[in-house]
Amino acid sequence: MQDILATLPKTLSATRDPAELSRFTQQSVDFISSSPIAIVKPAELETLRELVLWANENNCPLVPLSSSTGASGRGQSTSSARPAIIVDLSGMKRIINVDERDGIAVIEAGVTFPEFDLALKSHGMRSFKPLLPRRNKSVLTSYLDREPITSPHDHWDSQDPLGGLQVVFGSGEAFRTGTAAIGGSLEEQLRKGSRQMMAVGPGVTDFLRVIQGSQGTLGIVAWASAYCEPIPALEKSFFVGSDDIASLIELAYRVLWRRQGGQMFIVNNVQLAMICGRDKSAFDALVGRLPRWALYVNLTSPDYFAQDRMSFLEADLIADAAALGLSAVDKLAGCSAGEIGDQQNDLPALHYKDRPLGAHRDVFFLTQLDQAPKFVREVTSLTDANGLAADSVGFYLQPRIQGVNCHFEMTFPFAPSDGVSATKIAALAQLAARRIADAGGFFSRPHGPWSDIAFGKDRSIQRYLRMTKQLFDPNEILSPGKLCF
Prior knowledge:
Elements: E1 14-15, H1 18-22, E2 38-40, H2 45-58, E3 62-65, E4 85-88, E5 95-99, E6 104-108, H3 113-121, E7 125-127, H4 139-144, E8 162-169, E9 174-176, H5 186-191, H6 207-211, E10 219-230, E11 234-242, H7 245-258, E12 264-268, H8 269-276, H9 280-289, E13 293-301, H10 306-323, E14 328-329, E15 331-332, E16 335-336, H11 337-345, E17 359-367, H12 372-385, E18 394-400, E19 405-414, H13 419-438, H14 450-456, H15 460-472
Parallel strand pairs: 2-4, 3-4
Antiparallel strand pairs: 1-2, 5-6, 6-10, 7-10, 8-9, 8-10, 11-13, 11-14, 12-13, 12-18, 15-16, 17-19, 18-19
Helix pairs in contact: 8-9, 12-13
């Protein structure tokens, strides 16, 4: 396979350095990724398209990746059923345009959240983020994988915050979606004042819905437009703690109904201790002192009448909490609500889930917020039966799309040097995924070993997905072996 690299176009260069390749090789208890044969770093759209066309001619698999550190902790993010070339897009870091009037920016695939926020700050804006992403996380990778943002009132559709984008399908065809598909190059569109604000299009087609969640199996995105939020004139954060998750869910619904703005989520004491405890000793101290559950609410005010707005937002939150016998406070067990916002705006060097033991395993799915207690009971009974302490599992509930549904996530911390624990946690996570699927949880982002569980619930869809794969990637060169392909 390596011999075919000699046929690469002169505009492309491949890296075979063992140290570089090792960053993209994942070994796990439930999968072993094929070692990549090389890494190619396209610098622009044309070289990316040239690489995809070459791969089709030479039947060489490609695995696209945008984050700078290689393999992530999600599992199978860089794996392939066959030895493949890693398409490293982390060097494509242009922030092509920022428009504060429309609240939108156009960025390339390698731009990370800190880089994006730095560019947005001078325009009075910041990015929509998931909860404390890794510092080196590609913004577009996060959005394309539908990672939930922490601002449910700004989330109107599962596609948000993406607009139009430029993709190279597996066939080698370069294609623009949404209002990016109007005539002229991107630069010409921007000069004329056009903005790539709509995801739907051209016409009534909606290719973004097909591309999102496909994990690089249909196309490779070079750039996209993304909506941003204005930096508020005032913001204030609160915790509402309780040992009863049902009361916090009811309060969350009331906050969502009021459209109070800012960020909001529910976590258990383990997840909150991971967020606020900067090391293992701080984590251990917090877990025992925090209430079992906490609702985090961040209130924001714009420039106009900022203090007046903050006053009535705060009064409504306090009144709604009191009606349920709860209290809104700025600190819980010494954990500051404002610190979460500080971390969101300046992401920590070490991912928060790795603070307790050094590594973690996640299981996440979609449900409705009022169904969350059922899944908490399912997982708790499973962990109890397998001898895992109650304070060893983090729960995170993120309302999405104005509260229409909810991202439910479990985090199992473990020590990477402890092979027994890693194996036990991997098996337990898989058992939890199967139990959740049987109880009605929806795996909209089935990574790695969950694919069989997710697609096993509706095998009829596989035929249509394979037809889609044939349309966009007829030679099956993109990320072979992922999802149901």
